[in-house]
Amino acid sequence: MFFYSLFKVLHIIAGFTALAVFWIPIVTKKGGKAHIRVGWIYVGAMAVVAISALFMGIWRIGYDPEGTVESVAFAWFLIFIAILSSATAWYGLRVLRYKNRKTGHRQWLDLLFPALMLISGVCISIYGAIIGFTLITWFPLIGIMLGASQLLYWLRPPAKKMHWWMEHLGGMLGCCIATITAFTVFGAPRLLGVSSVHPIVWFIPTILLVPVIVGFSVYYQKKFNRTKHM
User: Fold this and answer.
1) Tens-digit pLDDT profile for residues 45-78
2) Which one-letter DSSP state was computed for residue 29?
3) Considering Cα of 101, then 105, then 108, then 111, what sign does the dihedral take?
4) CB atoms within 10 A of CB 93
5) What is the distance of C-alpha 94 from the center of its chain?
6) How many CB atoms lie within 10 A of CB 11?
7) Helices (H) and strands (E) in the chain, counts
8) Which of 20, 110, 186, 206 lies 20 to 30 Å from 157, alpha-carbon distance?
9) What's the pTM value of the predicted model, to 2 decimals?
10) CA 98 to CA 102: how far, in whole Å?
11) 209 CB neighbour count, 10 Å cutoff
12) Secondary structure (DSSP) of 94-153
């Protein structure tokens, strides 16, 4: 119980840190000092969030003596969020590492994370359908789509100019979706008095941030295309 409480405190502190700084790399100059330094703070905070969420989820499933069907379902959600956030953050970093690649990428660790996100998404979705938990049935579709798209990106040769920029942006904003979703699901009942199983609580971060990802992608793609023809 002591370790669970410790990881819970670390999870809360790291989660609030990530929520406080995630917007700074988005609005600051890309590649600038603020973008890089705050970006690493965000990545570090998300690493703590993912590890602590994984520990708490496993503990609640295997060792919580008062575990109910709902609490176990939320534990699996914690584990899935840990996988989703860590996989997208790792992806956002690694596309920068291999931004100059010309062929398909076969580094096993880079393929493992999206594959794990894809497989866990399928498993959690099936689990949600079995226990009749609609939100857990449908929310993992986000991980399934992200996992599939990341695998395709790694396995195929790059086809677009500045492909790594777009993928870095998508990976980090995908990590933001996981961060804010976890906060709303577990924080909304305490802070806003809204039920944690209300659909809007689960999907509002995705509804708000996916258009941001698309908008940034379109903007920068047009910008890079103009640069290419100058």
Assistant:
1) 999 999 998 998 898 888 876 667 778 888 888 8
2) P
3) positive
4) 15
5) 15
6) 22
7) 9, 0
8) 206
9) 0.84
10) 9
11) 16
12) HHHHTTT--S----HHHHHHHHHHHHHHHHHHHHHHHHT-HHHHHTTHHHHHHHHHHHHH
